[in-house]
Amino acid sequence: MSLLFSIFNQKLIPWAGEDLNRRLIVAQTVIKKSALPSDVKITPAKIPGKRVIMRNKRFHAGQRIYYASWPEAKMHELDVTSLICILNGVIDFQAGKYIITCDAGHFIFLPPRTPINKFAAHSFGETQKDKIYSCSLLQMNLYRDSIHCMIHNCRNEKITGDPTANCLIRHPQTVQTFRLFADELSHPKSNPVLSGHLLSALFLGMSREIADGHQLSSAMQTPDHPSVPKSVQDIRDYIRTHLHDGLTIEKVARAMYISPSQFTHYIRDVSGQSFVEMLTECRVSEAKFLLQESQWSVITIAEQLGFKSATYFGAFFRRHVGVSPGFYRKNPETSKIQRK
Questions:
Q1: In contact, 228 and 215? CB cutoff 8 Å
Q2: CB contact at 8 A, 265 and 256
Q3: Could you read off the pLDDT of 75-87 as tens digits, one per residue?
Q4: Topology of 232-334 in CATH?
Q5: Is the pTM of this model over 0.70?
Q6: How do residues 9-20 score in pLDDT, each as one tens digit?
Q7: Where residue 336 falls among pLDDT bands split at 50, 70, 90?
Q8: 10 Å Cβ neighbour count for 63?
Q9: Model pLDDT, residue 220
């Protein structure tokens, strides 16, 4: 049984099933004491120095993690939604202009662009040099099509991670559940009962993915053991569902956790096509499907397929199909390529 599976089933799922008002902290620009669980303490804390937009952007799972930093304060601004789950101990966690002090069983929700600092084990005001303070947390970052989980342990201000508990979950419904949970917390009339149900569903979904072995572990993503897509259909499915993102071979290779050169050789070996040929085939088949099965306008379809304009889409479609999108919609029997 993996560490993450045990954490979800023995801690997070039971905690989420209880009264969320007693456990959830939402980091905001202004945090009101009345909106916090009764046993949580907040202390105002200034952020010294200037905010600097990060030019050398760090990416993960195809998405930027940090947007800005405060070098003097050693703080950074997340560009993703994040959920912090306190697993054990008592921590001091700085979010924005507050230091949040809470213990195991609490969740800290961090909307995008929230400034955060490294957390520390809370000392309870003790001053003995030989006393050991420790705590740990699970951080979950929400990306476009995945959830990144990682465990951080703090022991006397030294923070370490556990590579065996660092993984990526890409199940679409589970990712969407996290997004719905985040949207509900951001709603002006957020309902704690609904939020609690969504959080429970999120944890249950993640637990199932881990139990089924569907997570991607960072411990396996090494240069000596590169991961590869399971099949050509996996690649086509990814391309078809991300056409609106302006796909490049670098983006798709990164999503598959292999280098662009490895990806180029892989798809040529297993499909006999180049990336451009596969992308074109997916665009054509998806365009035909949408023209036949949807009531979307040609402009909307063009945007969905990643084209800059309906004119460019029309020229592309006519070049590969032989007729205009409008003519094909009225005469679908001209189809030669079916949706894959």
A1: no
A2: no
A3: 888 889 999 999 9
A4: Arc Repressor Mutant, subunit A (1.10.10)
A5: no
A6: 999 999 998 888
A7: very low
A8: 16
A9: 37
In order of 257, 258, 303, 331, the CA distances from 226 in angstroms are 7, 6, 33, 46
Dihedral angle sign, alpha carbons of residues 292, 293, 295, 296: negative
Taking CA atoms, 67 is separated from 30, 53, 75, 176, in Å, by 21, 6, 11, 23
Q: 3-state SS string over the chain?
A: CCHHHHHHHHHHHHHHCCCHHHCEEECCCCCCHHHCCCCCEEEECCCCCCCEECCCCCEECCEECEEEEECCCCEEEECCEEEEEEEECEEEEEECCEEEEEECCCEEEECCCCEECCCEECCCCCCCCCCCCEEEEEEEEECCCCEEEEEEEEECCEEEECHHHCEEECCHHHHHHHHHHHHHHHCCCCCHHHHHHHHHHHHHHHHHHHHCCCCEEHHHCECCECCCCCCHHHHHHHHHHCHHHCCCHHHHHHHCCCCHHHHHHHHHHHHCCCHHHHHHHHHHHHHHHHHHHCCCCHHHHHHHCCCCCHHHHHHHHHHHHCCCHHHHHHCHHHCCCCCC
Residue 22 is which amino acid?
R
Q: What is the pLDDT of residues 121-149, one digit of tens each?
A: 886 555 555 677 889 999 999 988 889 99
Q: Which part of the chain is CATH 1.10.10.60?
A: 232-334
